[in-house]
Design brief:
This protein is of the alpha+beta class. It has a single domain (6-65), classed as LOTUS domain-like (Nucleotidyltransferase, domain 5), CATH 3.30.420. It has helices at residues 6-15, 22-28, 33-42, and strands at residues 46-53, 59-65. Strands 1-2 form a two-stranded antiparallel sheet. Strand 1 and strand 2 form a beta hairpin. Helix 2 (22-28) crosses helix 3.
Length: 82
């Protein structure tokens, strides 16, 4: 069984006031960047705040955490069109 890295990533993003890129998270944590990208996509409280210009005209996503209330229930009906 694989161990979830969400808590480690969440703690790093909480400590960062300006957000972090996947590359910065990979440098700080002993986790591969591909695993970090996969975890960020699955985390409901992580979002892309802005894009930073990187090398050769590419851009990097800067991730931040959203404040999710504890009493926010998960939807009971899935795949329902609004």
């Amino acid at each position: 069984m694989r161990r979830s890295r969400h808590n480690q990533i969440r703690e790093m993003l909480k400590d960062s006031t300006d957000g972090m890129t996947a590359r910065e998270l990979a440098i700080k944590l002993p986790i591969q960047r591909a695993s970090i990208n996969c975890a960020l996509k699955k985390m409901p409280d992580a979002f892309i705040d802005r894009w930073e210009k990187a090398v050769r005209g590419r851009y990097r996503a800067v991730y931040c955490l959203a404040d999710v209330p504890e009493d926010c229930p998960y939807p009971k009906v899935r795949n329902e069109r609004i």
